[in-house]
Amino acid sequence: MFDKTLKVIFISLFTAMLIVPLVTINLKKDAISTAENRKLSQFPDFYDDQGNRNINFNNQFETWINDNIGFRSNMVIANAKIQYYLFDVLSNNTDMYLGPKGEFNYATEEMLIDYQHLNLKSGEALNFLAEGFQCASDYLENRNIQMYYFQCWDKHSIYPEYFPKTVIQYGEFSKTDSIVKTLTDQTNVCVVSPKSELIAGKKRYDTYSKWGDATHWTPRGAFIGYQKLMKELNDNNHGKYKILQEDNYEIAEKDQGLTLFGGIHKECILEEFEIKNPQAYMTNEKLSLYADDKRHKFYTNDSVNNRDCVLVLGDSYFNNFIVDDIAESFYETLIIWGDYCDDFVNIIDTYEPDIVIIENAERCDRTEYFAKMALSIKDVKEE
After folding, report:
1. What SS3 string covers the chain?
2. pLDDT of 166 over the 50 cut
3. What confidence tier does 383 reach under pLDDT thresholds 50, 70, 90?
C-alpha cells in the first residue's frame, strides 16, 4: 500500500512538472523578460507575407516555447544567483567580469589586452600621433582657435584592484599612459588628463562604482574631470569662465547599482549631481551639420559674459555626464561624436568655434584616426 502511494505521488508530481509549465506559458504579446533584459520571442505565423506556408514554423515555435514556457524566468534567476553567490561567476556569455569581491567590471577582448599592457605603441607610432596632433593644433592656431586634448580613463586604470586577479598585468605603463606622455612632451597641445585626480579622489569618493555602471565614471568622477578641464581653460584665458562648484548642485544619494543577467543586483549608493539653476538651454536647431544624429547636442547660454563657442569632439563620457556643466560657462557649446573627425575642416568651418576639445575615451582610442585626418589637412595645404 505504501509503495503504491509513493508511485501515485511520483507520477502526480512528474505529470505536474510536465503540465504546469505548459498551462502557465506566457501568452502575452511583446512580453519583456526583466531577468534577461530582453524581449521574448513571439508566437510564429503559420503563413508568410506571400500567403505561403511558413517553412520555419517548427524552429520558430521551439524558440517561442523555450522563451515563454512557465517558470522559465524563475529558473533563469535561480541559476544566475546560484552561480554568482556560490561560485562567483556570471551565468551568461558577457563582457562583464567579477573582481576579487564581486565588483562589476566591463572589458571587451581589446580592453583585457589594454589592461595587461600588451598593446603598447611603438616609438614610430607615437611620433606619428605627435606629428598629427601638432598639425591639427597648428591648423587651429592659425585660425585663432584653442585646442585641448582630454583623456578619459576606463575603470580598470583607476581601480585596478577591482579587476579580476586572474588577468595578469605587465608593467605599470599602459598604451594610454604613453599617448598622454607623448602628446604632453612632443606637442604644444594642452593635454588634460585627470588620472591622478581620479585616483586621489577615490580615497574619499567613488569615482568609478563597484556595482554600478562599469563603463563610465560616476557623477563624482565626472565632476572631478569637469573641474580639471575648466581650470585648464581658465588658466589659459585669464580666468574668464565660470566654474561650477559643489554648492551649484543639488547632490543626492541613490542606489545606482547595475542589474545584470538573471536579476543579479548589488546596492550601490552613489551621489547624483543636478545643477540647481541651469542657464544653458538646448538649441539643437543650430545643428546645421549632422543634425540627424541624436547624440549631438547644441547649447546656448545668454547669461554668460562672453560670446565664445566651445566644440567638443567626443563621446559618452562627456555627452552623458558633463557637456551640460560645460555649457554653463560659454555662450555656445556643442558636442559632435568623435567618429566624425574625418570631416574636421567642414565641422570647424560650419560652427566656427573658439575652443576645440578632443575628448578620447581609453577603450575607444581615436588618436590614430584623428592624427591621420590632421596629416591629410597638412598634405592638402602643402599641395
Report:
1. CHHHHHHHHHHHHHHHHHHHHHHCCCCCCCCEECCCCEECCCCCCCECCCCCECCCHHHHHHHHHHHHCCCHHHHHHHHHHHHHHHHCCCCCCCCEEECCCCCEEECCHHHHHHHHCCCCCCHHHHHHHHHHHHHHHHHHHHCCCEEEEEEECCHHHHCHHHCCCCCCCCCCCCHHHHHHHHHHHHCCCEEECCHHHHHHHCCCCCCCCCCCCCCCCCHHHHHHHHHHHHHHHHHCCCCCCCCCCHHHEEEEEEECCCEEHHHEECCCEEEEEEECCCCCEECHHHCCCCCCCCCCEEEECCCCCCCCEEEEEECHHHHCCCHHHHHHHCCEEEEEEHHHHHHHHHHHHHHCCCEEEEEEEHHHCCHHHHHHHHHHHHHHHHC
2. yes
3. very low
